[in-house]
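Recap from last week: sequence in, structure out.
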Amino acid sequence: MIDSKNITTIVTASLQRRHKKERRFKLLGRSAVAFGFMLVFILIADITYKAIPAFHQHWVAIDVSYKEDWLSIKDDQPDSLKTANFRKVLKQSIYEMYPTVQGRKDKRALTKIISSNAEFTLRDHLLESPSLIGKKETFWLLLDDDADTYLKNAKVLGEAELRTSQKQATWLKELTDNGRIEKRFNIEFFTNGDSREAELAGIKGALIGTIITMLVTLSLSFPLGVAAALYLEEFAPKNRWTDIIEVNINNLAAVPSIIFGLLGLAVIINIFGLPRSAPLVGGIVLTLMTLPTIIIASRASIKAVPPSIREAAYGIGASKVQTTFGHVLPMAMPGILTGTIIGMAQALGETAPLLMIGMVAFIVDIPTSITDSATVMPVQIFLWADSPERAFLAKTSAAILVLLSFLFVMNTAAALLRKKFENR
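Predicted structure tokens:
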């Protein structure tokens, strides 16, 4: 006879072993998730810490004298002011504040703590207020990126690691002690385009270029991808040719992105003659890259729609087209939007294909149309990361934060749309 007590003991021991394995598996899973979140937190915290200096910059108060002989003008007419010698006004005003500074080398070092754009700031200010000619006022000007970096990081890095001389550091300390140095929020980071001078460089041009490029990509890839998926799943006959198309679509999803850039350079630019560095060309190239992802995800979502939905539509007399667009497509839309989010997120972070079509060019102007020369955020980050000035390090991290925020906003909008279709 079989001993029921032994069987119970064996089964109990087996259950205990299985439960221990399940607990270990759950623990490992939770540990993996926690480890992943920890790495993401460390990464974002490190980027944020490095980006903080980019969101503020230092300004200095200079006693500017608008003397006519320094301006080299004879009257206060706007046409005469446009060609006035504002550089001399700036230099002489600074020399008046430091009369003990002598020698060409020291004077050059003294004026270098002010941004190279300061003379143009003075010009714009005097053009707005020509009554200041012959008068003196205290005017706030932007510091050079080396002086700004020194004030931000001297205590952290040490003076030896910064590109500021001992005399410049002394002058900056005197200005700070006299209340002539002020730290302000760096609004120019969001309103300026790119610049060779780190203190003037901003992300507006790259951000608008990214938005335009993504709009072109979305307007092309979404309808084409959904249409292709609907045709292959609902209308195309199942034969050898559709099998070949399906295999090629799956293979295209694994093609390196730089190949699409070469295709855009060889065909879209060289054959069709579209302009280089334009969001239109960038959007077409990214469309070619994201189409396989959208088509594959859309086909899987369409295939997941229960056959009973189609049968019910056919049963009440709906045609194939009415069934597809009135019942199948709305039910598959949440999955289609998920695939679109993945494809667009991939396109948002791409750099290699855009480098091939010239969007790596140094572009200062803000794009206003799909054919204007432009760059995008990933390329802008790539360019700044390669710059030797330390100020660009903070701006690179800040641009990464802006790019991540843009991705978050885009994904949130898509998730809300997906939720809306799920509820419907």
